[in-house]
Amino acid sequence: MKTEVYSWRLSAARKADLESEARQEGISVSKLLEKITADWLAQRRNGHSKDDAEQAALRKRVMATVGTIRSGDPTLATRVRDVVRERILSKHLQESDASSGSD
After folding, report:
1. Residues in the chain, pLDDT under 70
2. For the chain, how are helix, strand and coil distributed in percent, rounded to 5?
3. What is the DSSP string of 69-92?
């Protein structure tokens, strides 16, 4: 049983948005807010926020580029920035082609 009351001020536009969403869901604003806060708290407690997932995906992509560049080129050390950029661009283009379904 719910016994606690919490109130706060919000803009008229935010209130209208909440009321509209509640109508679309067929629930009261109170139930909508209960659902929103429960979902948000669960994400925070589980550490699975959208930002965490995005950061993990970025880290995975970055780690895929980490490694050693082997070459018989004695000038590689002076050109390494350009070589790495070329390889990253090439890999990115390959991934883009693969995800777009290009043959």
Report:
1. 47-50, 101-103
2. 70, 0, 30
3. ---S-TTHHHHHHHHHHHHHHHHH
